[in-house]
Amino acid sequence: MSRYRPPPLPISNYITPEGEQALSQELEQLWRVERPEVTRQVSDAAALGDRSENAEYIYGKKRLREIDRRVRYLRKRLEAVKVVDELPANQDKVYFGAWVELIDEEEQLLKIRLVGPDEINPALNHISIDSPLGKTLLGKALDTEFDFHSPSGKKRYCIDKIEYRKA
Fewer CB within 10 Å, N- or C-terminus of the chain? Predict the structure, then answer.
């Protein structure tokens, strides 16, 4: 039996200046603070003797691998991303970085922001431009009505407001 895995779906390389700053801060925290501390802990645990049954040593090595994996990912990702800090010329349509207010057929308001895949945050209503709703919204104008098919069923939305903010 083969271990074939289909290639991952391509993701956009766009990021907001705030998103780039957050990734850079995470990289700095992992590399300059957490990794040296975990390395010290692993060294101290290794000095205690038998490593095969030393839980602190085993956990520390595992944590180092996790940190190194994330550091590698962040470095590659920060090289690949394109920071979008310019406002679009036509601010009457939905593009990357837009704050959009949608009204559904029950008159409920949904405020979202279209961001890159590295910045998704449901608590802040930040959705990816690669998400189904994000792809549907791209290029749409103010007062446009559209149908969106979600797992919970079909919904009809109207774009009530489009706003861009300079960081």
Answer: N
Is 3 within the bounds of a domain?
Answer: no
H helical segments located in 112-166: 132-137
pLDDT per residue as tens digits for the range 104-156: 988 999 999 999 999 999 999 999 999 999 999 999 999 999 999 888 889 99
CA neighbours closer than 13 Å in the CB half-sphere of residue 122? 1
In terms of domains, do 138 and 109 share one?
yes
How much is the pTM?
A: 0.82
Sheet (strand 126-128) strand order: 126-128, 109-115, 99-104, 153-163, 145-150
Longest dimension (CA), the chain: 70
Q: How many CB atoms lie within 10 A of CB 149?
A: 10
Containing structural domain, residue 78 = 14-83
